[in-house]
């Protein structure tokens, strides 16, 4: 005990002398936090804060104690929010790994709230973004059979059909999306494009039959389809 008591002041002095003088400035503490720079709501999805300054001193003073990760376990909604950030920033492989891990964790036993529909939807989106269209389509088709009232799976399924040139199937899926939600803007815009594609096809068929002006109309519609969609 005597050795420990003598060592601690020396350790404090060494650390305090090593701290930059400019860092010790009086600042407010938003929210009444006793430890600026630490987020009490941080979860294991968040990166741990870098060590330095007074945090480093605090860690040295607690060196004799076992290390404890004080970050909270994320809620299901926080997990899906984090996955969404990965998707929107193009980090699809990371998102897929997190989704598959989460699906494995919740498969058996199932979570109290039942299936995580948002996670399923994200799974299909990531697979599609990675070029695994058929796997994504299988998930969307399964979701539309179980949750026909959701417009998003119908819409995304239609997009895959359209990319494959199956425009009639795309139209059917989009009409189902609008039946679920008549004001769903993405489905409304996609349906307009699909109908233009159908018009182009019909004009092309008419041109082959010798109908005057049909070829020009087919080309005009094709130009419309090539125009970028305004966001």
Automatic annotation (TrEMBL):
The keyword Metal-binding does not apply. SMART domains: TPR. Residues 25-51 are annotated as: Disordered. Residues 1-26 form the signal peptide. Keywords: Signal, TPR repeat. TPR repeats lie at residues 151-184. This is Uncharacterized protein. InterPro entries: TPR-like_helical_dom_sf (IPR011990), TPR_rpt (IPR019734). It comes from the Bacteria. Pfam families: Coatomer_E.
């Amino acid at each position: 005990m005597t050795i420990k008591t003598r060592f601690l002041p020396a350790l404090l002095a060494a650390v305090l002398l090593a701290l930059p003088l400019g860092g010790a400035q009086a600042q407010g503490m938003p929210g009444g936090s006793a430890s600026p720079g630490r987020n009490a709501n941080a979860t294991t999805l968040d990166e741990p804060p870098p060590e330095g300054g007074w945090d480093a001193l605090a860690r040295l003073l607690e060196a004799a104690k076992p290390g404890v990760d004080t970050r909270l376990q994320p809620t299901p909604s926080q997990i899906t929010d984090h996955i969404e950030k990965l998707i929107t920033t193009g980090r699809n492989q990371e998102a897929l790994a997190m989704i598959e891990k989460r699906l494995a964790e919740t498969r058996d036993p199932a979570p109290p709230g039942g299936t995580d529909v948002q996670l399923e939807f994200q799974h299909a989106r990531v697979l599609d973004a990675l070029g695994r269209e058929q796997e994504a389509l299988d998930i969307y088709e399964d979701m539309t059979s179980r949750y026909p009232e959701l417009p998003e799976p119908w819409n995304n399924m239609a997009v895959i059909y359209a990319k494959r040139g199956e425009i009639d199937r795309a139209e059917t899926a989009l009409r189902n999306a609008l039946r679920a939600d008549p004001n769903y803007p993405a489905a409304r815009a996609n349906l307009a494009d699909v109908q233009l594609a159908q018009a182009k096809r019909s004009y092309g068929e008419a041109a082959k039959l010798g109908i005057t002006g049909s070829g020009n109309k087919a080309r005009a519609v094709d130009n419309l389809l090539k125009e970028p969609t305004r966001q």
